[in-house]
Design brief:
Blueprint: E1 2-3, H1 6-19, H2 24-43, E2 49-54, H3 58-72, E3 76-82, H4 90-98, E4 108-110, E5 124-128, H5 140-151, E6 155-159, E7 181-185, E8 203-207, H6 213-218, E9 223-226, H7 228-234, E10 249-253, H8 260-272, E11 277-283, H9 287-293, E12 298-302, E13 319-322, H10 330-341, E14 348-350, H11 352-359, E15 372-374, H12 377-384, H13 389-404, E16 407-410, E17 416-419, E18 422-426, H14 438-451, H15 456-482, H16 485-490, H17 492-498
Parallel strand pairs: 2-3, 2-5, 3-4, 5-6, 6-7, 7-8, 9-18, 10-11, 10-13, 11-12, 13-14, 14-15, 15-16
Antiparallel strand pairs: 1-9, 16-17, 17-18
Helix pairs in contact: 2-3, 3-4, 8-14, 11-12, 14-15, 15-17
Bound molecules: ligand NPW and potassium ion.
The site of potassium ion has 11 residues, from strand 5 and strand 6.
Length: 511
């Protein structure tokens, strides 16, 4: 699913009106009806007090139309208009008139602090104050009003976006409605996925409002959302007459004294994700640990006892996955530099591999095009320097990806994959995955799909999605707290099966 900017959504709106020969007021009615239907489905006629707060633009117009439908269906609705400007949109005014057809109660105008209504704990608040048209932070009495709503214990439903939130631009601590649930139109907005603002959205639900398919097809999005549908389409069926040689060989260069678990997890995950063969290049003293932990994985021993000191072997045709638990010793750096410079096809670099690379960024010239780097924030700083907020981070990461022709996987609540061809947001995963070794598993999974001849971007996106989906399945049994990296790894197979199950067969998600 494409993630568009506010400006692009306005263009999609205009293009829909032109191509579908529908008026903007009819499009607003379509949108409001769809929101009403979803609300009605959940509320089922419940006599709860509903307060609809409308702005004076088209988001407010949506709010008025939603309120009208609710009133028509017998709900207990009070409608308010935040009277912050005389400049009302055309479609707002039409709906301001239309609401008179169903009630004698005019919307109540709010113009200052004295007008603020009391909001009860049992109320449902529908926030239709600002949507994608917000163009500056909310200030003055409106800022106090946002705080008033946020301080209430009512359940807050945002229309398109929580008011005050910018769809795709940085904002510094500006007042924003803290929604419990957001009905967003056509595409989710980029700010829903960023750590500074994602919590303001609550749960979100995309409503397909039927914007012009031609426009949607050709528009270059800010990012693409990788969800179950897309992941399912990435999957490659196996040929019944195939053999292990068809599924590639992953060489995991990893581990050091006290961190052999990282080598075990990365190489084990590569096996679990379908690599035909996996070999671990590890320090001598780690061999027993590895061989006892994952019997399917072969080993090559470096001459260093406690850490990898050299990269000497006879293997051919393998995919290198380097870094987990490798350590930062000088001779490990030399072995890393040698390993990198011997590769002709994309590699996966994780953890200490990225820290070693940051020691000499000149090595980037030796990394094959479309190699995959999977840094957490601390490691990323070694590559792109410091940043100010998520938008700055993404822009610097994009520049880095294009300049060095590499794929960056920026791990987080929503993992961003930044490629020279564009940016992707991952839709799977949960907070239980914030646990030691989870990243080691991810690097092994991505390397396994590279070895299985998925192209580098697909291998990355598919690996990131499945890693999160494994965590989502595992959490049903283990809870967030009980989740650990080896369990995530063991759920890769079930997560692949789950790609092809219908939603009703999925167990409920832990919130
Ligand atoms: N995309 C689609 O396909 C469809 C979109 N639809 C809906 O339209 C919504 C977008 O509507 P929109 O463009 O009218 O903008 P909206 O968010 O209502 O606000 C604009 C008003 O706010 C004002 N204003 C701005 N910032 C302010 C501030 N800080 N403090 C105070 N005022 C501020 C600004 O005034 P001005 O800047 O001119 O002073 C202007 O009057 C979208 O979210 C969705 O709900 C559907 O109906 C149909 C399909
Ligand atoms: K809103």
């Amino acid at each position: 699913m494409k993630i568009l900017s506010g400006e692009q959504l306005a263009q999609a709106d205009a293009s829909t009106i032109q191509k579908q020969q529908i008026s903007s007021i009819d499009l607003m009615e379509r949108v409001a009806t769809l929101v009403f239907e979803r609300l009605h489905q959940r509320l089922n006629g419940a006599p709860v007090p509903i307060k609809v707060f409308c702005g004076i633009g088209n988001n407010g117009g949506d709010g008025l139309a939603i309120a009208r439908h609710l009133i028509q269906h017998g709900y207990h609705v009070t409608t308010y208009v935040t009277n912050c400007s005389k400049k009302r949109s055309k479609d707002f005014l039409v709906n301001y008139d239309r609401i008179k057809e169903v009630t004698k109660d005019w919307p109540i105008l709010l113009s200052c602090k004295d007008d603020f209504p009391e909001i009860g704990q049992q109320d449902i608040v529908i926030d239709a104050i600002f949507g994608t048209g917000i163009n500056r932070p909310i200030d003055g009495w409106m800022a106090e009003f946002v705080e008033h709503i946020n301080n209430s214990r009512a359940f807050k439903v945002a229309v398109d976006m929580p008011s005050g939130l910018f769809a795709d631009q940085a904002q510094n601590d500006a007042p924003v409605i803290r929604a419990n649930h957001t009905f967003t139109f056509q595409t989710p907005k980029l700010s829903f996925f960023l750590p500074e603002t994602g919590n303001l959205v609550g749960t979100y639900e995309v409503i397909n409002i039927g914007l012009d398919p031609e426009y949607m097809m050709q528009v270059q999005p800010l990012a693409n959302l990788v969800d179950k549908d897309l992941a399912q389409r990435m999957y490659k069926n196996r040929n019944p007459f195939s053999h292990k040689g068809d599924y590639g060989h992953v060489l995991v260069m990893a581990g050091s004294e006290g961190k052999m678990g990282a080598a075990v997890l990365a190489s084990g995950a590569a096996i679990n994700a379908g690599a035909g063969k996996v070999t671990a290049l590890i320090p001598e003293d780690g061999n027993t640990i590895l061989q006892c932990s994952v019997p399917e994985v072969m080993s090559i021993l470096s001459s260093g006892e406690s850490h990898v000191t050299n990269f000497d072997h006879e293997l051919q045709n393998y995919v290198l996955c380097v870094g987990p638990g490798l350590g930062l010793k000088d001779d490990t750096f030399s072995a890393f530099a040698k390993a990198i410079s011997k590769q002709a096809s994309p590699v996966v670099i994780d953890a200490d591999g990225i820290n070693l690379l940051s020691r000499d960024l000149g090595l980037l010239k030796k990394i094959p095009e479309n190699s995959i780097l999977t840094p957490h924030d601390g490691e990323l700083k070694g590559l792109i320097g410091e940043w100010k907020g998520s938008y700055d981070k993404l822009s610097k990461a994009q520049k880095f990806s294009m300049e060095h022709k590499v794929i960056l996987v920026l791990k987080g609540a929503f993992t961003f994959t930044v490629t020279p061809q564009g940016m992707f947001v991952n839709d799977s995963g949960n907070p239980g995955m914030a646990t030691a070794g989870s990243g080691d598993v991810l690097s092994g999974v991505i390397a396994a799909f590279l070895a299985q001849k998925y192209d580098p971007i697909t291998a990355t996106l598919f690996g990131v999605y499945l890693h999160g989906a494994s965590g989502d399945l595992a959490v049903q049994t283990y809870a967030h707290e009980g989740l650990k990296a080896s369990i995530i790894s063991n759920f890769i197979g079930p997560a692949i099966l789950n790609l092809f199950r219908q939603p009703q067969q999925q167990p409920p998600q832990q919130q």
